[in-house]
Amino acid sequence: MNSESVAGVLAAIVASIVLVVAVLYGPIGQFGKPVKPIQKIEQPTAGAPAAPSVRGPVVREVPQ
């Protein structure tokens, strides 16, 4: 066996190990992953309008 064939065999072994590890830690894309539940956001219902807050006096001009 020459060095090129040894390198080819070692490359095939390393590639297969990497592929197995990638599949074990998680498949690529959406395959095999659980579907995320969609959260339904409810709109708040329109209640009775709140009473306006009490405001202080309005000062138009400030004496100097």
Element layout with pairings:
Blueprint: H1 3-25
Give me some keywords for this one.
mainly alpha
Structure characterization notes:
By secondary structure, the protein is an all-alpha fold. It is 36% helix and 0% strand. The chain is built from 1 helix and no strands. The radius of gyration is 35 Å and the shape is elongated.
Proportion of strand residues: under 5%
Order of helices and strands: H
- Helicity range: 25-40%
Number of strands: 0
Poorly predicted ranges (pLDDT <50, ≥5 residues)? none
What's the number of helices? 1
Mean pLDDT over the residues:
78
**Gyration radius, rounded:** 35 Å
Instruction: Tell the overall outline.
Output: elongated
Major sheet description: none
The first-to-last residue Cα distance is 103 Å
Structural class, from secondary structure content?
mainly alpha
Q: How would you sum up this structure in a few lines?
A:
By secondary structure, the protein is mainly α. The chain is built from 1 helix and no strands.
